[in-house]
Amino acid sequence: MRKSRVPVLLSVVFWLSFQAASLGAQEWDDWDFHADLYARGDQTFTITVGTVFPTVFLDGNGNRVEGLPGNFSPLVGGTISLAYNHFLGANLFVGGEGGFSFHYTVGRNTLFIVPVGLRAGWQFVLGSFEFPISAAFGVARHGYMNTSHWGMFMRGGVSAFYRFSPGWSFGLNADWSWFPQRTREDGDRTPGRDVHGHILGLTLSARYHF
Questions:
Q1: What dotted CATH number matches 34-209?
Q2: How much is the CA Rg of the chain, to the nearest whole Å?
Q3: Under 8 Å CB-to-CB from 53, ≥6 apart: which residues?
Q4: Higher confidence at residue 28 or residue 180?
Q5: Most-buried pick from 20, 99, 168, 193 (CB within 10 A)?
């Protein structure tokens, strides 16, 4: 019974999406683009999914950590996140974000990272295209096998969105994240054993405007 419900549910989802797109297209005829498309108080809610790639890992002295990112599997990891933006003007926005990502290792284990932080950015508008540049800062929960810890993170990203309708836009994103892992032994800091992970993300987004 459960398997038979899946095609029905998917059909309902696609039908609702088609109806929303049709309504958006009807509104589109009466909606003009201009430089001040956004105003103070405008908001967006974004869902993002895609892939993540480990790039370079450095120790506390800025030297490359041996074995990393070689310890990660050639299989790319995945990520999903939600973000909220509040516009302070035609271009400037602030907000918050939360997400989840996973990374495979050659030992067939998985590293999980759950970042939550504040974000701010500036958006350029060119016709029906929008180009946000953003930066985020916050904390991240790392989980690997039977161990876990909290750390900070910073992320910078650029995006390109196409405004499909007054309520929806869809786009591509590229971001670079820094995840520092600061170590201690017997309560004392051990900077030489720190690891600074740098991870590239390539993702797709759907953004709701309200």
A1: 2.40.160.20
A2: 20
A3: 76, 77, 199, 200, 201, 202
A4: 180
A5: 99
